[in-house]
Amino acid sequence: MIDNIFSPTFGNRPQQIVGREKEIADYIEGLKANPGHPNRATFFIGQRGMGKTALLLELADRAKEFGFISVRVTASERMLDEIIEGIQLAGLRLREKKGKAVKSVSAGAYGFSFGLTFTDDIQNNYGFRTKLTLLCEALAKRGKGILLLVDEIRTNTPEMRELATTYQHLVGDGTNIAFAMAGLPNAISNVLNDDILTFLNRAQKVRLGALPLNDISVYFMDVFRGIGAAADPKVLDSAVVATKGYPYLLQLIGYNIIKQLGNTDTITSSIAELAVINSKRALEQDIFIPCLRTLSNEDKRFLEAMAKDPVVSRVADLKERLNVTGSHIQTYKERLIEAGVVDSPGRGLLEFSVPYLGAYLRGEV
Fold first, then answer.
1. At a CB cut-off of 8 Å and minimum separation 6, what does 83 contact?
2. In this model, does residue 274 exceed pLDDT 50?
3. Minimal CA–CA distance to 50: which of 201, 188, 192?
4. Cross-strand partners of 71
């Protein structure tokens, strides 16, 4: 029951995506439109735990309704080969489902020996662009488009450049193709700042922020009611507030509440409180340590200075606290905002964008 409802594990897809209806609808709008629609090329940007992978999986599922074959890969040295292999496998499944070969891609078709398997000539002598073009053309004859989903973008690589330039080429030819890529803020920034890939700046950039607490509240009430667990609204409200709108915490707290239920069917305040405590502890290994590992010692010193404030830090106070110049503060402010670790809620103000990171640095978690 726990595994089927909440999925507090990275890379898993929860039972339901909460609070991302607009992001999903905007992307689907692009798939329903003609090739080249701006929403068909989108970067989803967010810190760890913001639900990027779950969103890609949801888009893959929704895209089927509009005639798209989806291929999801993790950014790596092999991702171009994995994209080709994934499309071929999806085509094989399509063939098995229909009980016949993909139309116009049977034995002897140009470039293919059978189905979506390339001839030896194509396989051995041509690169990614030619192979992807042939696959797009073959599937288009069956009324299918291709949706490429690339997760965990890390930095500029030859593979990223090849994928991006091939996509641009195919879009220019009116090919029915789309992509959605997800990654941490600084990794996406590196890709967009590549001199060769400047055209990617025209892609949509969606920053995944905190979920509306009201959406989480409705979801919790529906889930717990559905499993026959009663709870005082104030008890659930405390659990909802504790999530701080963070998708991963939503999953952790929900999971731990059910885990603590045992044989009882009532969510007591003690059950909810213990679930929140255990969930916060899980953030250390899953979120805080990986997040801090990527930062410099000076970045961490800046964050430790921020952590002395309970909620929001004033830039003027940080300047005095660190005994540095205004330009120094500005440099590290921009670095940490770009890394997705802090936000600026107002002029001259900074706050942590990763829930409970300040408390962790203060030794309170």
1. 71, 73, 128, 132, 148, 163
2. yes
3. 188
4. 148
Q: Is the pLDDT of residue 201 over 60?
A: yes
Residue type at 161 in one-letter notation: R
d(CA 292, CA 296): 8
- In sequence order, what are the residues at sequence separation of 6 or more whose Cβ sits closer than 8 angstroms to the Cβ of residue 325? 319
**The pTM is what?**
0.86
DSSP 285-296: IIIIHHHHHTS-
Cα dist from 160 to 74, 156, 157, 224, 315, whole Å: 11, 6, 5, 43, 37
Q: Which two tokens stand for residue 124?
A: 């051995």
Cross-strand partners of 314: 349
**Does domain 295-361 match CATH 3.90.1030.10?**
no
Neighbours of 265 (CB within 10 A): 12
Amino acid at 240: V
Would you place residue 100 in the very low, low, confident or very high pLDDT band (cuts 50, 70, 90)?
low
Superfamily for the 20-207 domain: P-loop containing nucleotide triphosphate hydrolases (3.40.50.300)
Least confident window among 15-29, 163-177, 190-204: 190-204
Predicted confidence (pLDDT) at residue 188 exceeds the cutoff of 50: yes
Q: Tell me: the pLDDT tens digits for 221-230? A: 999 998 899 9
Distance between CA atoms of residues 352 and 24, nearest Å: 26
The HSE-up count of residue 236 (CA atoms within 13 Å, CB side) is 21
Say which CATH topology domain 213-291 has: Helicase, Ruva Protein; domain 3 (1.10.8)
What residues contact 364, with CB distance under 8 A and at least 6 apart? Answer: none
Among candidates 30, 26, 32, which has minimal Cα distance to 67? 32
Model confidence at 186, pLDDT cuts 50, 70, 90, reads: confident
DSSP string, 133-183: HHHHHHHHTTT-EEEEEEEEE-S--HHHHHHHHHHHHHHHTT--EEEEEEE
Containing 233, the helix (H) or strand (E) segment is helix 233-243
Average pLDDT over residues 55-68: 95
Name the DSSP class of 101: P
Domain regions of the chain by residue span: 20-207, 213-291, 295-361
